[in-house]
Amino acid sequence: MCQNAGVLLSANALAGYAHHHRLPFLVLAVYRGSHEDTFYYQMYKGRVTEPVLRGLGIPHHVVDQIEDAAIVADAVRESQLARSPVVVLLRRSALFGEAS
To answer: I need a labelling partner for 9 at 20 to 30 A (CA). Which of 2, 48, 51, 77 fits?
Structure first.
């Protein structure tokens, strides 16, 4: 588990694991930089995380509410079937059960 900043920093490694080594694993990442975030310096991460993952060809999902947490189990299966890392981005509202 990491913050989306960690996902961004590991872009090269994730691409290698996905496209060269074909390693299936799940990355759980706290999704910083949305309207929920009160720190201006986190905002760019929210703007670039999903476009970077799309550019790398890494499957990803966003969990907005705690009720959507079943996505995590689905992402594990997706990772195994695709033989690729899958990133699940967890918003604050999902982590703390807050209304989004």
So the answer is: 77
Q: Is the entire prediction scored with pTM above 0.90?
A: yes
Distance between CA 86 and CA 89 in Å, rounded? 10
* Nearest Cα to Cα of residue 74 among 56, 86, 58: 86
| Helix, strand, coil percentages in the chain from 3-state DSSP, rounded to 5 | 55, 20, 30
Structure tokens at 60: 């990803």
Residue with tokens 């899958």: 86
Half-sphere exposure (Cβ direction) of 23: Cα atoms closer than 13 Å: 10
CB atoms within 10 A of CB 29: 20
